[in-house]
């Protein structure tokens, strides 16, 4: 029997999803959810963000969550960090991975974090120096496939940024399609370039399903050799520029598709679906996930009575 | 400049979508909608179904719709037909194409149309004989990738059915993933087999997005050389076995993705989006389409005031 190809699934709902919810999810509930997710076989969980509680009140409990969750061996527990102060807080909670973030487009970076890309790169260097070998480092590039203000983001700019990160000793890079504008042709081309130039870089792709291209883009990235994807339980998360549209690529829908295709995600689908089905109550609204509503493709229905004996 | 690869988009909303709506869409509104769709560049429109008005009351106006729409040159106007009586009615309205249908799985065929597959094939032969060269003939195979009652549907069974259709002189075949269970690996494998054995067959793939695999399956079929896809405006339609889940692959989301990828669909996206945005009022509920909510990937947002001058 042919060995199945491994794909690593990285859960972002509790950070990327919860941060934009109207409702604060109680700390205890966050911890329970993360503990349940830890047992499904996910490769990584982005637990929280060590940012200013004023900027993101929903994640004001970063320390409590990070230090009180059960840490499953084999799962990487990451946290988003905006600067050295955040890094210090994250390291005090013993995170496995520091995730830095900036936008590839200048306007989006200014709008989102009020820094120029050059200032962001300076911050990255400071955090990298401060972190040393106390944690893994990952750099997330927002608007890597296009910007809602500037439009096209040249692939060369993304390539230049990655070179800067690699020079700083950052081990992982996430290319994020923040507003769901990437298409599969573009994704395949950029991923092939990145994989060719930095074959040992830990490359993650982070897609949004805003325009229904989330899973098609996952397929395109797979075909370029990418094996790490961010995803969000239930498809939580989203984009302030697309009200009503779907959010992040949905974790359980992605796992369902990849396993059906013959990939090995390491994730147990049924427990993941059970957890996803808790989300509408936790966040107080319906979520975009499809498989939680339809059931997996293996679901069978009873043969109708009218047909029996025909 | 490289010539863009042509993909043919075939609209099914007014038949496959409307037939399951709770509300009867008035005849005049159907005609207006079809006339508007005709002008967008779609390759084919499945206009209605010449079935018993008792079985599908929503399409009881088949004759009126089919005979009163404006026929745009270059657009194929098709109708679903269950038997010779339906075929006679359809031909009297001068349809371009007769679309026959049956399920690959015995239980689904019995449940859906109360015939065994053998009886369906007899009907197909009778309709083919009756039609002669008065219209094109297409055979739609439901549950071609799996059955909600029987589970797996062997690819060999689908291959055998196609051979029967080809022997009857049927020119086109649609492989339909009726309940949204197909995955991209399976789609690619079956499409490659079909394309290799019948290279000149007019092969259509008809996907549902029930489990978020609609557009990924389109990508898989494209990679196997398929260039014809059914789709439904707004993602109308659906599956009685998956309440709450999405319906057919959404026409404008598919056109948006394919054009972004560099394919030539022949369809003008903006007019199509304008028509899609009328649907919630026509059917009385929200529809799953994403691009109609988020806007196309080319959409630009004004630069925030706070950023200006930074």
From TrEMBL, chains A, B:
Transmembrane segments: none annotated. It holds the Pfam family HMGL-like. Keywords: Lyase, Metal-binding. Coiled coil: none annotated. One of its GO terms (molecular function) is lyase activity. It comes from the Bacteria. Gene3D superfamilies: Aldolase class I. Belongs to the HMG-CoA lyase family. NCBIfam families: PRK05692.1. This is Hydroxymethylglutaryl-CoA lyase.
């Amino acid at each position: 029997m042919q060995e199945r190809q491994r794909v690593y699934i990285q859960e972002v709902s509790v950070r990327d999803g919860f941060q934009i919810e109207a409702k604060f999810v109680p700390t205890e509930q966050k911890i329970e959810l993360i503990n349940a997710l830890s047992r499904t076989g996910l490769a990584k969980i982005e637990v929280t963000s060590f940012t200013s509680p004023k900027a993101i009140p929903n994640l004001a409990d970063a320390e409590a969550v990070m230090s009180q969750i059960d840490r499953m061996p084999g799962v990487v527990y990451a946290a988003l960090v905006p600067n050295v102060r955040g890094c210090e807080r994250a390291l005090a909670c013993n995170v496995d991975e520091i995730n830095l973030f900036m936008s590839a487009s200048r306007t989006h970076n200014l709008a989102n974090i009020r820094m120029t890309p050059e200032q962001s790169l300076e911050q990255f260097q400071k955090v990298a120096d401060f972190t040393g070998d106390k944690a893994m480092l990952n750099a997330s590039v927002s608007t890597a496939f296009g910007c809602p203000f500037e439009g096209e983001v040249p692939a060369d700019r993304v390539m230049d940024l990655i070179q800067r990160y690699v020079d700083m000793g950052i081990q992982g890079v996430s290319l994020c399609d923040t507003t769901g504008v990437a298409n599969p042709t573009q994704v395949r081309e950029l991923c092939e370039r990145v994989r060719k130039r930095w074959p040992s870089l830990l490359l993650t792709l982070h897609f949004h399903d805003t325009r229904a291209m989330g899973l098609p883009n996952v397929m395109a990235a797979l075909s370029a050799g990418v094996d790490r994807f961010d995803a969000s339980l239930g498809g939580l998360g989203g984009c302030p520029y697309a009200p009503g549209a779907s959010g992040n690529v949905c974790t359980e829908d992605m796992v369902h598709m990849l396993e059906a295709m013959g990939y090995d995600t390491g994730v147990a689908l049924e427990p993941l679906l059970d957890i996803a089905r808790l989300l509408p109550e936790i966040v107080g609204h319906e979520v975009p996930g499809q498989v939680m509503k339809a059931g997996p493709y293996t679901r069978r229905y009873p043969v109708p009575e009218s047909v029996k004996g025909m």
